[in-house]
Design goal:
The chain has 345 residues and is α/β, with parallel strands linked by helices. It has eleven helices and ten strands. β7, α6 and β8 form a beta-alpha-beta unit. The two termini are 32 Å apart.
């Protein structure tokens, strides 16, 4: 997903000072130990779980908070059913010149997580060159999410993510799984309107043919559009597993920030309903905020139910957490109560 600092609405280098050293803040749950690690490549793992037709989920985090302190991730919070994998956001403007690349905070966190849970580190094409990509691949991660990034620098070697996919597959062969984003509503962050769905699916298929083996959809609040996107992928011959991205916002503020950055909007009727929940006259009371949270919880559950009911072969969902885990836990609990999410035996 788009890397942002939700405290400011931007991802500039000045958003948070780089700490002199980074120490991951992670608490693993009982049973998470290295001896029980199975398949760590996300693509094959997701394909296997999808074939079992049983709902599973992943979470996305950033390595640090907006103030520069490490994000604290306690897996006990997600019990009884842990996420299948964790993806770690790449902040292009913050990380592009960190040397060596292994000192990038997100990669330090990813290396720490990889001892106990499958991990999907992101890598942006922003100001990336062949040498730095080689250095990243030499870290021997089992998976990679290749993204273009929100900004493009005139001097960068990779203008799009497809060559990153190609070089990664060529160098690591089957030792790495490569995921790419999917855009149900098209490249809305680029401001292209109207979108050419056929062209966009063609771009995605080219990445799959270059070596990508899984797709994670980006923000979309229209479940029928997500279902159609999956059907269009299959009709185009794209057979890799598709995971649907979800963002259960905790406030109108975070929704507004993401709307501005991604270009993804609520349908008109839902936006009107949301606006009525938080009156400008009240300034956003605690009661208003609770109603906004519940609105997005209900919407997220509705999206999951719609996609499962459509029976398009999607069983994996990925929460863009913005490092806020309470909403994710609430959604997971409701999915359990609906008997859609099954706890381990």
């Amino acid at each position: 997903m788009h890397a942002i600092d939700v405290s400011t609405g931007g991802s500039s280098p000045a958003a948070a000072a780089r700490p002199s050293s980074y120490v991951p803040c992670v608490t693993f749950a009982p049973g998470q130990n290295e001896s029980r690690m199975g398949e760590q490549r996300i693509g094959p793992l997701v394909a296997e779980l999808t074939a079992q037709r049983r709902l599973f989920y992943g979470i996305e985090v950033t390595a640090s908070r907006p103030d520069g302190r490490p994000t604290c991730l306690d897996f006990n919070y997600f019990l009884p059913l842990l996420p299948t994998f964790v993806s770690v956001v790449w902040l292009g403007q913050r990380y592009w010149d960190v040397e060596p690349v292994g000192r990038v905070e997100s990669l330090q966190l990813a290396q720490h997580l990889a001892t106990r849970i499958p991990v999907l580190p992101h890598l942006s094409a922003y100001r990336l060159d062949e040498e730095r990509l080689d250095q990243f691949l030499a870290l021997n991660f089992s998976s990679l999410l290749a993204v273009r990034g929100d900004q493009v620098h005139e001097g960068q070697s990779f203008r799009i993510s497809q060559p990153v996919v190609e070089q990664s597959r060529r160098q690591r062969a089957e030792k790495i799984s490569i995921c790419v984003p999917g855009y149900p509503e098209g490249y809305t962050s680029l401001g292209d309107s109207p979108q050419n769905a056929t062209r966009n699916i063609g771009f995605l298929k080219a990445k799959i043919e270059a070596g990508a083996d899984c797709i994670i959809t980006q923000i979309c609040y229209r479940p029928e559009v997500i279902v159609q996107f999956v059907k269009d992928c299959r009709a185009a011959g794209i057979r890799v597993p598709i995971i649907v991205g979800l963002l259960p916002h905790e406030s109108l503020r975070t929704y507004s920030i993401m709307e501005k950055i991604t270009g993804a909007h609520l349908p008109i009727d839902l936006r009107e309903e949301l606006d009525q929940l938080q009156s400008p006259q009240t300034g956003g009371t605690k009661s208003d905020q609770d109603m906004v949270r519940k609105f997005f919880h209900r919407l997220t559950v509705r999206i999951v139910r719609h996609i499962l009911d459509a029976d398009v072969g999607v069983w994996g969902f990925h929460f863009f957490t913005l490092n806020r885990f309470k909403s994710v836990k609430t959604v997971l609990q409701e999915l359990r109560e609906l008997h859609l999410l099954q706890d381990p035996n």
